Amino acid sequence: MAIDFTLEPELEAIRLRVRGFVDEVVRPAETRLLGERDLDRDSYIKLLFGLRDEARTAGLWLPHMPAEWGGMGLGHVELAMVQAEAAKTYYGPFVLNCQAPDEGNMHTLLHWADDAQKERYLRPLCEGRAMSCFAMTEPEVAGSDPTLIRTTAVLDGDEWVIDGHKWFISNAHRARFAIVIARTEDDPEIPQAANSAFLVDIPSEGWTEVRQIETMHGGTGHSEIRLDGLRVPAGNLLGGRGKGHLLGQYRLGPARLAHCMRWISQAETALDLMVGRSLDRFAHGSLLADKQGVQWMIADSTMEVYQAKLMVLHAAHRIDRGLPFKSEVSMAKHFVANMLNRVIDRAIQVHGALGYSTDTPLAHMYQHARWARIADGSDEIHQMRIAQRAIAAYQEHGTTRAATGDLPL
């Protein structure tokens, strides 16, 4: 029987090590990082990066990268268990150096960069000496359609000159470099071959951070960027001319799934809080846990977290096996993002006014969760692609089976 949802003993041991590290090391420090307003900047940085040193010492560094780059060499199924444990805390993924957008950029550089680019850009990321960003989205065109990108890169001698406008570039305020997607081809054979990717050092002349965009959860490094006559050496072209779309899609598949892994952890935390509150709160003659309306919210949330875990594990399995995974990742991303919003919303409802306050983490989680339905492809784009694949499967095979996971049942 090939289907087995258990972990090998050594992997189960890693999962428990991550859980122990998060509970015993990260969580106590996070209480200080998030709660003590008198913690000055130097103390904050020393405490936060000290946690990274402890992760290295514990052998829990870079779970997604191969051993030759200082990582744990875990596949996507194995990474799911690590991300799920790490994301039980706000800083967990950062401490283990598997946070977005750096994680996705590491995968991208490992696959697309030449040896010199890897040493200059990937090595510092893996060693925790640098942070990065991925600059594709633009305010003037729909972010869900990269073929509309207006930022241009024109070859001038041995340099590319980039002009354009980017926004919602996560981590740009803290990044040492960016992967910038720009249009290089005027008349490509297909629209998807118009763009190329470039490695851009930050700061650089012509790179201007206009502002950090204030979002529902505050100003946290989602920047608006102007690119005016930015010159980049020809050697900073990443992956070849016209490969920007392929590179972006390669990056976004596993990156979307990594988000899902972290979102499942957040949803499970919300479910735990919901059940804990229902067992603690007495009203109108009984505990909330005894009331059918609350039980339905708990039941729906439990089933949805279970569905989400199965979808993510199956999509990760397909990536690890080298099988087509776009449809499965799209379905997982859409479902998990919406599940996260629903579960947190129910948890707030069960907590009543307390859930709406900032006395619990739920309000903060809810602000972040709404972003999940937009980031890395909006709900509607994923639904469109899922439908197109189902229709194509039926047209080719006379059945939609291949579009529903191609599972043996």
Automatic annotation (TrEMBL):
Domain Acyl-CoA dehydrogenase/oxidase C-terminal residue range list: 243-390
Keywords from the UniProt entry: FAD, Flavoprotein, Oxidoreductase
Required co-factors: FAD
Keyword Flavoprotein attached: yes
Domain Acyl-CoA dehydrogenase/oxidase N-terminal, chain residue ranges per copy: 9-128
Domain Acyl-CoA oxidase/dehydrogenase middle: 133-228
Domain of life the protein comes from: Bacteria
Family according to the record: Belongs to the acyl-CoA dehydrogenase family.
Subunit structure: Homodimer.
Protein name per the record: Acyl-CoA dehydrogenase family protein
